[in-house]
């Protein structure tokens, strides 16, 4: 194709006069803009601060209502409007995307970024300036009640997925709030747990996801954790909030407290916790602390400076476009949620290629289990997103196969000793060609403020007994588990021919599952956590992290223990071969880049996606544990 050409435009006399006028207007605009922008950002902040009374300064630093901070109408400074939302907006109804650990199971950084962008659009569509998420916590133990919100057990995977979510949210424009800084690892006693850890581990291991989100993702807000670290409350720790976060990592924006996490207003404001939410501590205490000199005016102004810097760079004081309500649960976001749900499903067992079910589509399916007719969205707590609609496995399979092909019986509750429904479930299983069991956990079993209800990793109640009873009458059984914290199934796994771990895959859960079960989508998810065989394989669950790489696949490797399924494991309906591994250079010095290349070939009959994983270890190291 030849390049397009055009002749120079000609103008009439009138047009020429108009053009000159336009040029004059533009030139005048340029002059005005250049004068306005001669003031630096910090000069502008200083000017605003110098115009504020002490009362106005303090009002920038505490809540005004449940999730807002106050406007300063006199100086044209808007307050912040926040909402919870690690996997969607918790304000009325919104698109409920897969939970954090479900996003991590996709191992798909681009998908995480797109989910973040969609979430940001929905926050803005609901008039919110700030998303209280994503959650960057590591899943040290599957019994942690907030396991659904975590990014899995590995710091690098967590960092890559959550930083992508941050970038997506802040592309909209909406402020992302990374939480909970740091070492939030269990819910029982969460406000008083005192974690002991070395400075090196705090920085290099538990801090990696936060540092990556700050330095590479540009996160504009950090929320502290409830717990203590080495005897200091996270909201009141200058080591954490000033030394590590600001001096070492260069974070220039503001820290917001988790709701009610501040005990001492004086310690918190001096440590670098800028905005107090969930209590009236700052509102009540700061006037007197400033008047008495216990908190200097300089400390107060520094906190306000960080808040104003964030607001200005986010656009709140200048041009901040209104959100579009049509973005909330838009068709595009529904489709993205379906894509994410499919990609989050992890195929762990496929004995005799029982899956996909397309070869059985003319036959009947017995659908059994406490989560078969329910769309499990999340555990309980502030991360829960109420969708406009949700699709259960039953609805998804009936839409795919026709209601006549799907026989349903609940069989048992999530956590109950009642076996009265077993008989009906066994009857339909015996009469069907294939059995699909859907179980796992729900908000009654894992939640913010409450660790695993049973205290055990095992699938609760009578679920494993029901799986075994169903397999006794029909060996063609496929198990699908929905949860945040992964569940142990050692008593029943040998009786399953197929196993899919779904975590909480979002509002399109049932459609995503039906697509995978029926072979319309080839699963490619990988476990973002290790799946233990039993409680005894886990390290002691306490608050002592000293000398610690004490959980996840590092623990299993060090102890020589074989879990039920390893971190990073996941099957496909096709096969892949790896060849021609090349490492360049073969020897390197500190700071030198190393490139690893490998050829990956799909050797099966179906299209599919493969996650290429590279693990590094050091057999001999001069670096040893450093005292905290």
In short:
This protein has 628 residues and is α/β, with parallel strands linked by helices.
Record keyword descriptors for this entry.
2 domains; TIM Barrel; six-stranded mixed β-sheet; Rossmann fold; alpha/beta; five-stranded parallel β-sheet; 18 helices; single chain; 628 residues
Structure description:
It contains 18 helices and 16 strands. Helix 15 packs parallel to helix 16. It has 628 residues and is α/β, with parallel strands linked by helices. A six-stranded mixed β-sheet has the order 9-14-13-12-10-11, with helices on both faces. A five-stranded parallel β-sheet has the order 1-2-3-5-8. A three-stranded mixed β-sheet has the order 4-6-7, with no helix packed on it. It folds into two domains: 284 residues, Glycoside hydrolase, family 3, N-terminal domain (TIM Barrel); 229 residues, Rossmann fold (3-Layer(aba) Sandwich), CATH 3.40.50. The chain is globular, with a radius of gyration of 27 Å. The N terminus and C terminus are likely disordered. The termini are far apart.
- End-to-end separation in angstroms reads 67 Å
What is the count of DSSP helices, taking H or I runs of 4+ residues?
18
Regions with pLDDT < 50 over 5+ consecutive residues? 1-36, 624-628
Query: What's the shape?
Result: globular
CATH C-level class of the largest domain is Alpha Beta
Sheet with most strands: strand arrangement: 9-14-13-12-10-11
The helical percent reads 25-40%
Q: In CATH terms, what is the fold-level topology of the largest domain?
A: TIM Barrel
What number is the mean pLDDT?
92
Number of domains: 2
Rg is 27 Å
CATH architecture label of the largest domain:
Alpha-Beta Barrel
What's the total number of strands?
16
CATH homologous superfamily identity of the largest domain: Glycoside hydrolase, family 3, N-terminal domain
Q: What summary fits the major beta sheet?
A: 6 strands, mixed
Per DSSP, what share of the residues sits in E-state strands of 2 or more residues? 5-15%
